[in-house]
Amino acid sequence: MTAVERREIxxxxxxxxxxxxxxxxxxxxxxxxADVDLVRIDLNALISSVGEQVPSPWGxxx
Amino acid sequence: xxxxxxxxAICRPFRSALQRQLTGVxxxxxxxxxxxxxxxxxxxxxxxxxxxxxxxxxxxxxxWLTTTARAHQQVIDALTVVTTPLPLRLxxxxxxxxxxRTMIEAREDDFRRVLDRLEGRVEWGVKxxxxxxxxxxxxxxxxxxxxxxxxxxxxxxxxxxYLRQRRMRTRxxxxxxxxATAFSGRLHExxxxxxxxxxxxxxxxxxxxxxxxQNILNxxxxxxxxxxxxxxxxxxxxxxxxxxxxxxxxxxWAAYSFTGEFAEEPEVEP
Lengths: 62, 270
What we know:
heterodimer; A: mainly alpha; disordered N terminus; disordered C terminus; B: alpha+beta; five-stranded antiparallel β-sheet; four-stranded antiparallel β-sheet; 9 strands; 41% helix; 23% strand; gas vesicle (chain B); GvpL/GvpF family gas vesicle protein (chain B)
């Protein structure tokens, strides 16, 4: 069962769940969840602007 | 000092204690707030970071988002050991405990229903990648990807050979992509039949994940904890050893992707 080896969780896998999953309740501090999609787009933009020579910040534990 | 309440999850009362050294998103330990027979797992966070304005700014900050997401996950993970938590979306914040109580009252029926539904279940993530490069590396062709034509070292290659190689490479890539897509469809069908529920997440961008290859399938499966081993074995068995197709399994996760039944959450769109 090599597949269950526990590795550092990839940030993207985490964000798939934390930004797109989980129960949405209206908190007192309300961020429209649509904003979160914006974040992802911004992340994409961020990454492509950073360029490939810069190691990705979330490959390793922060 | 003024503190806000960050809510991680809603749970049924559980007996075991959380790890003592567990810390939440802003470094303070999570505590349980019991109301109407449900538990909200909360921690105090500073208003300077979690009020709407700073929060909005922070969510654009990769480093902050990373730290916060990991801290959130750590609490959920700890909860998963002792109970079946119903995880809330990242950065769900209330002014004080009474705000949290009001929220519980407003949603308690929903919470109970989904908690019942998820009880004893976990989520597994399965991703399939197409990796044309690795398929080629197995062949006689020079496998150097990246800057096309950037490699002129070694024996000189005629223009015709170069074009031929490039064509072959393109064909190999399409071939792998097609195989991986067909494989993903079959795998998803098999795993969905085993699992109680499934969700498709949008394929991950390679730029964001840093993973090699192209992500074709990014799915989540809801599986009873007791059947997890069997599920993992099933994934292992179904794995295609064909060059150029890679399967990745993650989990077990709290059932993040299966809380949407009652939320106004749209289905994930690519």
